[in-house]
Amino acid sequence: HRVIIGWIRNMDIQKIIRLLIIGGIFVLIIVTPFYISGALFFPYITGKGFIFRIVVEIIFALWLILAMVDKNYRPKSSPVLWSAIAVLSVLVLSTIFGVNPYRSFWSNFERMEGLISHLHLFAYFLVLASVFKTPGEWRRFFYVVSASGVAMALYGYLQAFGLTAISLQSGIRIDGTFGNASYMAVFMLLNVFIAAYLFFTEERRMLKNIFGLLAILEIPAVFLTATRGAILGFLGGVVLIAVLFSFLAKDRRIRWASISVVASVFVLIVVFLFAQNTDFIAQNYVFQRFRNLDFSERTVQSRLSIWSMSFEGFKERPILGWGIENYNQVFNKYYKPELWQQEQWFDRSHNVVFDWLIIGGILGLLAYLSFYWASLYVLWKKYFFNKSQENLIPAAVFTGLLAAYFFYNLFVFDNLISYILFFSILAFVHFLSVGQIGVLHNAGQHPKIAPAKSFASALIVFGLVFALYFLNVKPLLANTWLIQALKDASFQGQNVDLVLSDFEKVFSYRTFGTGEAREQLISYVNAVVRTGTAPSLKDKAVKLSLSEFESQTKESPDDARGHIFLSAVYSHLGQNEKALSAAKRALELSPKKQSILFLVADYLLSVGDNRGAYEAVKHAYDLDTTNGHAAINAAVVALITGRQTEAEKVLIDHFGSIIVPNQQLVTAFARTGRYDVARDIWLEIIKDEPQNAQHHVNLAATYLQIGERQKSIKELERAIELNPSFKEQGGEFLINEIKAGRNPLTR
Questions:
Q1: Would you put residue 574 in left (φ > 0), alpha (ψ -120 to 50) or beta?
Q2: How far apart are alpha carbons 631 and 642 in whole angstroms?
Q3: Backbone angles phi, psi at 659, to 5 degrees
Q4: CA 242, 245, 251, 255: dihedral to nearest 10 degrees?
Q5: Is the CB of residue 662 less than 8 Å from the CB of residue 689?
Q6: 3-class DSSP state for residue 659?
Q7: What is the pTM of this model?
Q8: What is the CA radius of gyration of the chain?
Q9: Which of 309-313, 494-498, 732-736 has the lowest mean pLDDT?
Q10: 3-state secondary structure string across 267-298
Q11: How far is Cα 166 from Cα 285, in angstroms, rounded to an integer?
Q12: CB count in 10 Å sphere of residue 165
């Protein structure tokens, strides 16, 4: 330890701080993409988010002290820096004047974005742009980035070969440690171009070969994610680079190689088009996604619908938009009924242009696009000032990277890790703009820190401690208690007091995770209400959920989702009028969402408004007559409200017959005395599920209602064959009762 103490004494404190900052930056690059925490809610997202925030806060505080002591570490003006300031300024304004400032600032556990993350990204950009001052330092930084990329690619290959699990969400598409194939795709996409940049600029042959191999190694990983936007973006970026080289490179060999690349990509596309109907293409999950790509595909249609809704939202708030993380309100308000087959709660438009129009209006979009304009201006100004190969390489490669990245984002959306890489590249372009400036003071010189600066440093440290606790520790504690609540709900769900106590601890922290915890609570309460739990415990659970969702709807009065959950709580309490009122409020906020119309119809039936219930379900069906679920609901409500003619018309119009294998319809026809139809429906259901013993029991009951006693006995015997234990559970007794002339199944 004496050696270490002596070394520290001999070192300049500024160098120590600088080394700590660089170490923190490398932790972000190496650790963040790979971190998955099974102890946190949304394990693929929240762990990465908290690591990023904590490390950035630490290195930003250290950088503030460093910049205060040495002006060489203060940011220098550049077009990219001003773009970053413009983006952050618009986001601050859109948060303040948006529809839900709290959500805009904090986001939630699922996304971990919000203004708070953009503040951290800006801080990360400032630190990176101010600390790395030489080409050599930037090369070492990109070495670490590239090492991270190739490690992720190798992990993806382990998934592809079945040696490591892929998340359930991604299916067979590799997703690395992201839990989402699209997130993996953009990470690998950016890394391919970074490896290519290192390959083109490396002077040492061995390293040049290594980075060439890394780029080649990472390319298949992009394809194995089967993310079409990333793959097409990659091909487009490569072609763009090749075209630029073919026109601007002075070396004839480079020009011909570039032309060959363009020709090769063109040939590959032509070959694919001619071979798309072969077994090889049809059996490959990557090629399948391109083979099935056309405007009639459900994913494409849903994207077009969502973009149309986004445009309507933009027209309502065109200047500063709705604020970050408020797309859900746009989605609900302008919901298009044809989206009934899709996810019902989109929080992104899946298009970078529309996302920024919603986030920050036209000002937000222009500010975001200025990142690209500023970067291209810096890159190409440097080249045209001195038309050398040295300046052409970064200009061409990063132009291709930016084009590929932007194209990818036209169909998906950013995540934390892609933002980290994007802001890293922006910081590098900023460096290219300002050049190598600032000279570190000589070793051995130890500038004195003035008392005022010492006081300011102390304030920075205090601010860091404050930020670490309130921005990270509190939400981390809330997150871990939420996981504990979910574990206890799964394994000790009958211990209602324990589970509710866990949830109350989550709520006590009052963090941005409260909303998600409330939704998990209502799922637990729904389960408790359906079980044989003691009435006093049920009442306690429902009252806690009532308190929380009343608060939720006060905090976010224009979010339909909260009102839907509140209606469920009122329903559990038997307060059907209040449940109906909450559901109607949700419908006001999302007037064309069929699922809300179905909910309103249920509550209208519960309060005896049969006509209103039928009108609600009929309206849901009329919004989009391709919706089979809406057709069933319309027919069921029509039947139970005495509108048999209307019910049969809906079924015939949609299905071509009133015999539709659906258990809701069986019950509805039976309630109207149409046991002959109920029988025929059960026969259709059994065709689809012949091994289900309960279906045969239900059919036996229906036969008994229409006097076909022998057929009823036959179905009960078939049920016993399928489930022998049913014989002792009452099957034999039922058969004997029917043989004796009684009707045990109709009581």
A1: left
A2: 17
A3: -90, 90
A4: 40
A5: no
A6: coil
A7: 0.92
A8: 31
A9: 732-736
A10: HHHHHHHHHCCCHHHHCCHHHHHHHCCCCCCH
A11: 15
A12: 9
- Please measure the distance between the N-terminal and C-terminal CA atoms of the chain and give it in whole angstroms: 87
CA distances from 138 to 124, 198, 200, 427, 429 (A): 15, 11, 15, 10, 11
- H helices of 337-450, where? 352-385, 389-409, 416-434
Distance, in Å, from the CA atom of 3 to the CA atom of 580, rounded to the nearest integer, reads 75
Distance CA 509, CA 234 (A): 44
Residue pair 426/88 in contact (Cβ under 8 Å)? The answer is no
pLDDT tens, residue by residue, 310-345: 999 999 999 999 999 999 999 999 999 999 888 888
What's the CA gap between 637 and 181, in Å, rounded? 42
Render pLDDT for 33-86 as a digit per residue (tens, 0 to 9): 999 998 999 999 999 999 999 999 999 999 999 999 888 899 999 999 999 999
Residue with tokens 């809704």: 309
Tracing tokens 């600390």 back to the chain, one arrives at 131
**Euclidean distance between CA atoms 35 and 148, whole angstroms:** 12
DSSP 197-260: HHHHH--SHHHHHHHHHHHHHHHHHHHHTT-HHHHHHHHHHHHHHHHHHHHH-S-HHHHHHHHH
CA distance 461 to 25: 19
Structure tokens at 508: 């006590």
Neighbours of 513 (CB within 10 A): 27
In a 10 Å sphere around its CB, with 0-12 CB exposed, 13-18 middle and 19+ buried, how is residue 238 labelled? buried
Residue 676 Cα distances to 622, 635, 663, 671, 702, angstroms = 29, 17, 14, 12, 8
**Among 231, 195, 198, 197, which Cα is nearest to 214's?**
195
| pLDDT tens sequence across 470-492 | 999 999 999 999 999 999 999 99
Check residue 168 and report its DSSP letter. Answer: G
Long-range contacts of 665-669 (CB under 8 A, 24+ apart): 665/632, 665/635, 665/636, 665/639, 666/698, 666/702, 667/636, 668/635, 668/636, 668/639, 668/640, 669/639
